[in-house]
Amino acid sequence: MSEKILLIGAPIQTGTHLGGCLMGPDAFRTAQLPNHLQALGFDVEDLGNLRVSVQEPLSHTNPKVHHLAEYRAWTQVLYEAAYNAMSEGALPIFLGGDHSMAAGTVSGVAQHTAEQGREQFVLWLDAHPDFHSLDSTESGNLHGTPAAYYTGSKDFTPYLPKLANPVKPQNVCMMGLRSVDRAERDTLREVGVLAHDMRSIDENGVIKPLRTFLDRVKASNGKLHLSLDVDFLDPAIAPAVGTTVPGGATFREAHLIMELLHDYKLVSSLDLVELNPFLDHSGTTARLMVDLVSSLFGKSILDRQTRAAENF
After folding, report:
1. Which of 71, 93, 95, 195 gets the highest tally of CB atoms within 10 A of its CB?
2. pLDDT in the model for residue 306
3. CATH says 4-310 is which class?
4. The whole model's pTM is what?
């Protein structure tokens, strides 16, 4: 992992149907994310929030698709931000914002990785695969499409920038799936994405499939982008998301994943997405997400227990 971390806010909510995600970046800051990372010894620079200009409407043959012009603009802005951050040798953390932002963040880091002659991998922690095309989405919410875009689906031409170096679908590992539409399920099988639903996790745990994937990344000298959606977590512990799906990851499962990722030290970029503070309970979800990021960057369970004990 790089010792230099760049925080980049992406206050996007046009990819969903529910307002509130645009407050996500500042909620992470209010939950003291920069301070926690600095306490772990990292050099942290907050670049503030990105912006896009007002866009002329862009229509699509699927009448349900909305905010397509904004999607295109955000994808381009985030692609450039991700590419530039990686070029500086920093580890960017993108603070969302809805998951449509991953179209730009993942494609940007993947371009830089390809120019280094290395392979890009993605660990997608989400209740949803977000693998719809512009044609197949029934809701028209574009936060359900970024994974299809950054893996090179031709459906997005000419609406979004054409990717010179998309991520290979077989280099994407999805964990925690529990809401997958039929069109997505068929496409995931066809292109070869590694997809682990919650039944798989219930049966096999998180360690075995995650180690298998991380060993592949390590063996290929690849770079790993982690995209963490709040709805990966069970809504009982993380209520601040507009797409709640019961039966998500528990507190310990989520921390175990972060701790194993820290052990491997392969994560080179990170998305934190779908935090909707409007739906939170006194900042519970924001603080949990910050705690998970802290585990990813080296804060151990024993450290938490020790500090808690010292407060009594």
Report:
1. 71
2. 40
3. alpha beta
4. 0.95
